[in-house]
Amino acid sequence: MREVEIDAVPLDRLAALLEPERIERLSEYAARARDLLEGRTVWSVNATATGGGVAEMLQALLAYSRGAGVDARWLVLDGTPTFFGLTKRIHNVLHGSPGDGGPLGEEERATYEGVLAKNLKQLLRFVRPDDVVLLHDPQTAGLVPGVQAAGAHVVWRSHIGRDTPTDLTDVGWAFLRPYVEQAEAVIFSRGAYVPAWVDQNKVWVIPPSLDPFTAKNGDIPPGDVEAVLRHAGLTVTTERHGRFLFTRRDGSTGLVRPHAGLIEGGHPVPGHARVVLQVSRWDRLKDMAGVLAGFADHLPHLPDDVQLMLVGPETAGVTDDPEGAEVFEECKELRLQLPEESRRRIHLCSLPMDDGDENAYLVNALQRYATVVVQKSLIEGFGLTVTEPMWKGKPVIASRVGGIQDQIIDGESGLLLDDPTDLDSFGAALDRLLGDVALAAKLGENARERVRNHYLGDRHLMQYVDLFEQLYR
Ligand code: UDP
């Protein structure tokens, strides 16, 4: 188990974006949190410090918490490839997807508990009785009993879920239930995700949020957006060369490395193109392959200047997501089977992961550059990859699944696909947005407003304070 250092960020930073009453309310909550948590630490424990929505949110929320005077700290657990293979299996079945189809029996439980027993030992060197420990996702659930026994308040949070249970989700929950049941409170992103056996009195529904000031979401001067992408080798939009700086979480600056992005087949997106973009981890449930297939099918109907970019993290060396490389290979294969004229309009891009903020900055530039952003997930707990382009005022086409149904109001702040596997309706949604600039702009504008009203950190932090008050009551 290792600690991730977090710098404090003052809550006032949000003041530029929020009405004064909202900031005042947040300050009141911060004062309550300081009083309540005086002399106590709030620990967050998850499986990775980089990559994915959970790490993204922890970075932001913990920094604001520290800025508000709360001792919030972050620990990342250690696991073996077998452990992460197993937790990925649990992740998949909780979404109702078989994943690798492997078992979740006694042997797997022994592996799971063995790895977590080692982590618990290390965790208890940090945690004191009466601290709060927030455990995130299936990888950490097995820590609940040990943390509880040590006298700390333990909360388990699931960032995943599925609206309708299936036999598979039952299998996943049966695996986790003995641990989760012992938590003092349990958090889900949507009410519909809560399994029937969870004690309703312990349930909190807290949707995720984004931080508008990170390398991922902060403003980029419009002229730089194209230039950054060209510099990173992703597009050939302008002839401008330069040094492109991004600001890291710790306030230091980094330089975008030339040709940081890798494009499969090596052909960057041409300058005149309108880009349809999906940014995701290479996870089957994100359906990158389905976006590719749907776009390829629809190409004959699309204007010549429209191109697709499927963007995800470099898969080499990612330990907590063993499926990534496989899914990326599948997409490569699919693309290779297309005729040359389709291939040159479909781009698979990998972004470097060794500097998380450089990766984030490139995602930011891509989301700002895109004409339409897609999230055609088959299942989605809550998609930060939906909230992020919405915050950037982009029209989003996304599946009517899971948390996305809360994030987008269909026809008002984006377009929802009733059936993400129906490629015709995906094509029709592309036609609608690419053919109607005014509609696209209106949806984008409403999208930004929706994020401002529902998915920024102030709401999220205040919900946590309400929860902590209940724990210490
Ligand atoms: N992401 C990223 N670089 C990538 C791919 C994804 O930074 O190459 C980020 C993306 O911008 C978002 C997060 O990873 O912030 C994914 O969160 P989401 O909630 O959409 O899905 P999850 O990965 O947690 O299932």
TrEMBL record:
<comment type="similarity">
    <text>Belongs to the glycosyltransferase group 1 family. Glycosyltransferase 4 subfamily.</text>
</comment>
<dbReference type="GO" id="GO:0006006">
    <property type="term" value="P:glucose metabolic process"/>
</dbReference>
<dbReference type="InterPro" id="IPR049438">
    <property type="entry name" value="TreT_GT1"/>
</dbReference>
<keyword id="KW-0119">Carbohydrate metabolism</keyword>
<comment type="subunit">
    <text>Homodimer.</text>
</comment>
<feature type="domain" description="Glycosyl transferase family 1">
    <location>
        <begin position="270"/>
        <end position="450"/>
    </location>
</feature>
<dbReference type="Pfam" id="PF00534">
    <property type="entry name" value="Glycos_transf_1"/>
</dbReference>
<dbReference type="Pfam" id="PF21269">
    <property type="entry name" value="TreT_GT1"/>
</dbReference>
<dbReference type="InterPro" id="IPR052078">
    <property type="entry name" value="Trehalose_Metab_GTase"/>
</dbReference>
<protein>
    <submittedName>
        <fullName>Glycosyltransferase</fullName>
    </submittedName>
</protein>
<dbReference type="GO" id="GO:0016757">
    <property type="term" value="F:glycosyltransferase activity"/>
</dbReference>
<keyword id="KW-0313">Glucose metabolism</keyword>
<keyword id="KW-0808">Transferase</keyword>
<dbReference type="InterPro" id="IPR001296">
    <property type="entry name" value="Glyco_trans_1"/>
</dbReference>
<keyword id="KW-0328">Glycosyltransferase</keyword>
<feature type="domain" description="Trehalose synthase N-terminal">
    <location>
        <begin position="45"/>
        <end position="194"/>
    </location>
</feature>
